[in-house]
Predict the structure of SRPBCC domain-containing protein.
Amino acid sequence: MDELAAARRALGKGSVPAGDAYTIEVRRRYDARIDDVWDAVTSPERLRRWLNPVTGDLRLGGKFDLDSGEHGEILRCDPPRLLKVSWLFGPDGDAWPGTSEVEVRLAPGPTGDTEFELIHAAVVEEPLFPTYGPGAGGVGWDLRLLALARLLADGETADHEALEKSPEMREFIRRSAAAWGEAHLAAGGDPKHVAAAVEATTKFYAPDPT
């Protein structure tokens, strides 16, 4: 829960090649040097330990695939400060290119730590937002960034499936969905829509056990 509280979340506006976009934004500090954090977000060996296994031509202009179905192209790579990729979901994503991008920005902190910022921009017409709000992607990123924190702290590899079934992680998901609801409200979201989206997101990521 300390890791959940360490992040600052916001819902904003941006653009992607397909048009106007909304952005989910996460900012936090990692107690690790910038070169270590950069390696963790770009090295295939370490990416699989907190995100998912990745394959492809991992260089500027190259394309990548994650085992979880996301894929895209490396749009910018400025070590060790900025990585930007297109971010498509599943095989149908190729039919609607330019709809989603993820950007990671790093900056060295004053005590050898690293300021971390992740911005995920998705086209306004993206179909999940009306039901789930920013939590659709936000909760997923909170879970992954928790795994990144554990990797940077002690080298622990996340077992996402096992973690997400534990009572502790179900509570983490519930609080993450609520935190994204607060960000949605702060951005001017309708309270009834926000409440429904938080409930739908919680049920999606942590369905009632059967």
User: Anything to note?
Assistant: The mean pLDDT is 92. The chain is about 40% helix and 30% strand.
